[in-house]
Specification:
By secondary structure, the chain is of the alpha+beta class. The chain has four helices and 13 strands. The strands form two sheets. Strands 3, 4, 5, 6, 9, 10, 11 and 12 form an eight-stranded mixed beta sheet that branches. It has a five-stranded antiparallel beta sheet with strand order 2-1-7-8-13, with no helix packed on it. The longest helix is centred in the first third of the chain and has 11 residues, at about 15-25. The model has no long low-confidence stretch (mean pLDDT about 90).
Amino acid sequence: MCGRYLFLFGNDYEYNAIIREAARNDPNAANFVSGQVAPSAYAPVLFAQDKQIKAKFLTWGYPGFEGKKLIINARRESAAQKQMFRAAIDFGRCAIPSSGFFEWQKNTGKQYLFEMPGQPILYMAGLYASFDGTERFVILTGQANDSVAMIHNRMPLVLTEHNYKDWVTDPAYAKQALSAPLPMLSCSAYSLSLLE
């Protein structure tokens, strides 16, 4: 499960380009701040339009059934069979840029940040759809690999800087990615106080 991630503004050219592109013609973009991204936040995602990669701000989380809590994740193992996600697998794939994602160790309560080794951006595969005129996204998750399993049994479907474009533009690649091995990540303890 991924219930929180980090997006830190910095000197990275690609980060800045994503923010500029997403903020273009979006008066709500000023509400996005560097740091922790939590469910219901307005955050940048990458998507395909006319075979080009574009960025825009969407709200994290599909509305829950009958007013229940937001649906923030979709299981990669079953998303293609679920009515809520089936169409987005074909026509609503996105990549969520981040500095890394967080997981909590239940028995200790400690928080850990998982990052892509040697890369400033960790991309997560997502799906998006419109609900009552508001575009929203979820993060796809899968069984955790050895780099995450000691903290949590699930992890986001992590994309690399080399394949996130294929995820959003190529339906055949996307179907393969739903069952492909996930990359190994680095992990470090993270102080909650730094995020508040």
